[in-house]
Design goal:
Elements: H1 8-15, E1 33-39, E2 42-49, H2 57-69, E3 76-83, E4 104-111, H3 119-132, E5 137-141, H4 149-152, E6 162-163, E7 169-170, E8 172-174, E9 177-181, H5 196-208, E10 215-221, H6 228-236, E11 241-246, H7 250-265, E12 270-278, H8 295-302, E13 307-312, H9 316-322, H10 327-330, H11 335-359
Parallel strand pairs: 2-3, 4-10, 4-11, 5-9, 5-10, 11-12, 12-13
Antiparallel strand pairs: 1-2, 6-7, 8-9
Helix pairs in contact: 1-2, 3-11, 5-6
Amino acid sequence: MAAQSVTDAQVLRALSEIVDPDLHRDIVTLGFVKELKICGGNVAFTIELTTPACPVKERFRQQATQLVMAVDGVQHVEVKMTSNVRGNGAAKADGPAAEYAPGVKHTIAVTSGKGGVGKSTVAANVAAALKLAGAQVGLLDADVYGPSVPTMFGVAADERPVVNQQEMIVPLYRHDVPLMSIGFLVEEGAAMIMRGPMLSKFVQDALARVDWGELDYLIIDLPPGTGDVQLTLAQTLPLTGAVVVTTPQKVALADVRRAVTMCEKLNVPVLGLVENMSDPVGANGERIPVFGRGGGEAAARDWRLQFLGEVPLDSSVPVSGDAGDPIVFDDPDSPTALIFKAIAGRLAAVVSTRTMQGTGVPTMRIVD
């Protein structure tokens, strides 16, 4: 008796059992399954995710292999995982905003209500984590009062961006990540004495005159507080959203609440909250009570925000940054680097979910 031939419908029906945990629809309906090929008992297909930093990528691969292998007649399964980051529709809008970062699909601000919470460290390491996951990502240091990117990425004091033939500023690169900071344009140690219009001009030039190229994500490190830079950025282009950084203490959370309120008033979606500098982890793996923990998660719950994760107080984080390499690049398999990677994955998932829900989810129907 001849072996039963495998059909597209059988494979797609099996794959439809895999449900995206954020979109709550199966990957076939969502149109994630591409390039399905069947040759005898051999089945090959691609699962195209909405971000390379998808936190369930490996789970999808394993589930897809197991489900299709269970189909009668299937002898071998080859699953290819790819991604296609979809831009938020507003970023491609016509009008004055179209001239700012035209090749960038998502602009994500990292903000806080006060200084000293490690906002720049979070921004740099989230950018690094997205890059290691396979995304095209850039980092704009808009913290004009205390630019940290030159130090954290090991940029020499005499290294300056150049202007290309199109009269665009070419950003500096580290780990294939384009970087721009006001710290690249002024003398090292110079005091940043700038009025509101000057601050606004720098932010607008950094978006309109810097050749960012084609990016999935542009991470923008904002200065602390709720001042001119935040206002200019929100009025200049339609931000995908903001990540708010806090520490566990109540005094920090009170200030961070103001940052959340600012985002709400400026119609900037808050994509999630990160608690930085939580209790350190001892040699035995237990938390050492120094500053406390759980304040960020509780605040996120009270404010109905996505909690992206907590980063423990870890001396290797500032050591790596001071040496010119964020810990995610310097020691990518360290416990803290893995936490930053998980935070970046959750952030990417939130962005993808909002984008898919906002622009309409493509669907695919199984035909027998």
